[in-house]
User: Which sequence fits this backbone?
């Protein structure tokens, strides 16, 4: 299986989670920062995992931009999964989290969602 882990990270927390996910995956695994990704590369992968920090209940601007650049069928035939990093404050649940929004967008672009969106708690920004 060929896997691509795409992430955005402001303080390094999401990068650490992306590294852990990439390290646990079998087969050929690549990891790339969202700003370095050429969307034409996606065709060669069996699994795409996208992660972002949660900002105001949404993914970071860089990940939102990636999701907007994908065509309606660009992920057809590709398995997809999403994760986010988030603060543990209960009040933030009112705004939602990035991972479910990423997962919905990946699915709308033709991806086959293989698991529920996952969130990872961080205790501070840096």
Assistant:
């Amino acid at each position: 299986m060929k896997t691509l882990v795409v992430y955005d990270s402001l303080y390094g927390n999401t990068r650490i989670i992306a590294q852990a996910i990439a390290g646990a995956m079998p087969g050929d695994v690549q990891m790339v920062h969202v700003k370095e990704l050429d969307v034409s590369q996606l065709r060669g992968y069996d699994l795409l995992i996208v992660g972002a920090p949660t900002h105001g209940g949404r993914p970071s601007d860089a990940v939102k931009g990636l999701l907007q650049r994908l065509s309606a069928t660009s992920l057809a035939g590709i398995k997809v999964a999403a994760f986010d990093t988030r603060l543990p404050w209960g009040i933030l649940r009112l705004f939602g989290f990035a991972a479910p929004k990423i997962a919905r967008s990946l699915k709308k672009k033709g991806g086959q969602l293989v698991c529920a969106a996952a969130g990872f708690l961080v205790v501070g920004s840096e």
